[in-house]
Amino acid sequence: MFEARIAQGGLLKKVVEAIKDLIEDANFDCNNSGFSLQAMDSSHVSLVALSLRADGFEHYRCDRNVSMGMKLANLSKILKCAGNEDAITMKSEDNGDTITFMFETPNQERLSEFDLKLMDIDSEHLGIPEAEYDATVKLPAGEFQRIVKDLSSIGDTVEISVTKDAVKFGTTGDIGSANIMCRQNKSVDKPEESTEIDINEPVALTFALRYLNSFAKATPLSTHVVLKLSKDLPIVVEYHVPDVGRLGFYLAPKVEEEEMQD
């Protein structure tokens, strides 16, 4: 038996909205420590890793490890029926072929119940290696979303370069080029506006903007986004879901054609 209730159901809706365009279907793995998902996008270029801790739920019960395969578009349709303030309860019997979602309004006057058919999905669990990153940048999530959106109107890729004082985003396209720089700024008065850089060595890597724009759909989840960069490693774009867990995206850097021709 799996059962979990989250008081702020809007969080669950935002998580699913953030990943449903990247992933068609995926297994949600539940055990006594929490609820997680790990899946490649349909083109096998990026990886999504979600983990929600058991103690972040109002009530959480998982008698044995269970893996529930769901089509994200269908899950999104059901969650759209919940109000942002509703509490959401998820329930599934051992070996059941459906998962039940119950939505309860704050005044408890309306209770809705939806059953979603589960799917059998073959998916390999990809181990994400723990790594020391050359540079970690924490910046306002809305700022990052705006930067990747603005640069997408100029080019297809972005070079992210980090020094101890600033992080720079640059692109070049048919119509010209653009550079946006965010300086380190540990704002004490307005922590939500702070940009913090933790660096072991400077790094400059190029990524496809299309994917970064997709990742930025998670902006409503968190005030800040954390970017972790290292030479020859995928970038990590991480959103901390307050009091519940994290949603991380991984994207391999693009290798310039010139390098490949050398």
Q: Can you give a write-up of this model?
A:
- The protein has helices spanning 9-19, 72-79, 141-152, 209-215, 257-261, and strands at residues 2-6, 25-31, 34-40, 46-53, 59-62, 66-71, 87-92, 98-104, 111-117, 135-140, 157-162, 166-173, 176-183, 196-199, 203-208, 224-229, 235-241, 245-251.
- By secondary structure, it is an alpha+beta fold.
- A nine-stranded antiparallel sheet has the order 6-2-3-4-18-17-16-10-14. A five-stranded antiparallel sheet has the order 5-1-7-8-9, covered by helices on one side.
- It has two domains: 2-117, Proliferating Cell Nuclear Antigen (Box); 135-251, Proliferating Cell Nuclear Antigen (Box), CATH 3.70.10.10.
- Strand 16 and strand 17 form a beta hairpin.
- It starts with a strand and ends with a helix.
- InterPro entries: DNA_clamp_sf (IPR046938), Pr_cel_nuc_antig (IPR000730), Pr_cel_nuc_antig_C (IPR022649), Pr_cel_nuc_antig_CS (IPR022659), Pr_cel_nuc_antig_N (IPR022648).
- Residues 1-123 form the Proliferating cell nuclear antigen PCNA N-terminal domain.
How do you describe this structure in short?
This is DNA sliding clamp PCNA. The protein has helices at 9-19, 72-79, 141-152, 209-215, 257-261; strands at 2-6, 25-31, 34-40, 46-53, 59-62, 66-71, 87-92, 98-104, 111-117, 135-140, 157-162, 166-173, 176-183, 196-199, 203-208, 224-229, 235-241, 245-251. The protein is of the alpha+beta class and 262 residues long.
DSSP summary, beta strand count: 18
- Mean pLDDT, rounded to whole units? 91
Structural class: alpha+beta
* Quaternary: single chain
Q: What order do the SSEs take from the amino end to the carboxyl end, as H and E? A: EHEEEEEHEEEEHEEEEEHEEEH
Query: Considering DSSP H and I runs of 4 or more, what fraction of the residues is helical?
Result: 10-25%
How much of the sequence is in beta strands?
Answer: 35-45%
Shape: globular
What is the CATH architecture annotation of the largest domain? Answer: Box
CATH level 1 name of the largest domain: Alpha Beta
Q: Could you give a short account of the major beta sheet?
A: 9 strands, antiparallel
Could you list the spans in which at least 5 consecutive residues all have pLDDT below 50? Answer: 257-262
How far apart lie the N and C ends? 57 Å
